[in-house]
Amino acid sequence: MADLGMMKTVHDAFRRELDRLARAAERPGDPRRVLRTAAGWEMFKAFLHVHHTSEDDALWPVTRRVLAGRPDDLALLDAMEAEHADIDPLLAAVDATLADRDAAPDRLGELIDALSTGLKKHLRHEEDEAVPLLEAVLTDEQVQHFGAVHRDRIGGDASRYLPWVLDGADDETVARILSGMPEPIRRAYHDEWRAAYTVLDLWPSPVKVP
């Protein structure tokens, strides 16, 4: 059986950041002033884009070939792709509201709530139905190809991506994820990347205007 444990850990990271985004949007004042340039929001969008496009390009197509002649399972893959397509307009709408100084104050909260609800529902659907199917029908090599495509698209952001994924994870999860990494990556994570990540102010508090 193929192992998609890393995917589940990445999903947990998205849930964590959605909760942080919601808290940031609820702070007093105008949180748009901070969220427009918040590193947490930019990293969330970038890593979600990599994750979803890597699935669209390197996971769903190969799974479709394996599942040829199984219409119910192919319908599940259709649903995964449709749910991906529903997320992008919400991200764009949040960005548009952050840029619109005349937008109603409660508009941002409404959009973030819709984004959080939609993405969390998709992640749960994927974990409950798609991941077990993928683990049952894909080979280790096929899953590794997906992982390689994903890593290539992260590229130079690996030094932020890995500690971001593992932010708040328990010791068992950290050990399991790192055990699958090359030794230079494990060493860089422990010696440099984790410390550099911890000092990032991803979701800064709004500055009050006198």
- Which stretches are low in confidence, meaning pLDDT under 50 for 5 or more residues running? none
Instruction: For the record, give the distance between the C-alpha atoms at the N and C termini, rounded to a whole number.
Output: 60 Å
Q: How would a crystallographer describe the biggest sheet?
A: none
Q: At CATH's second level, what is the architecture?
A: Up-down Bundle
Relative strand content:
under 5%
User: How many domains would you count in the coordinates?
Assistant: 1
How does the overall form come out from the CA principal axes?
A: globular
Q: Into which percent range does the helicity of residues fall?
A: over 70%
Question: What does it look like?
Answer:
With 210 residues, this protein is an all-alpha fold. The chain has one domain: Four Helix Bundle (Hemerythrin (Met), subunit A). Helix content is 78%, strand content 0%. It has 10 helices and no strands. α8 crosses α10 (183-198). It is globular and about 55 Å long. The mean pLDDT is 93.
Question: How would you concisely characterize the structure shown here?
Answer:
The chain has helices at 5-25, 32-35, 39-58, 60-66, 71-99, 105-137, 140-154, 158-166, 171-179, 183-198.
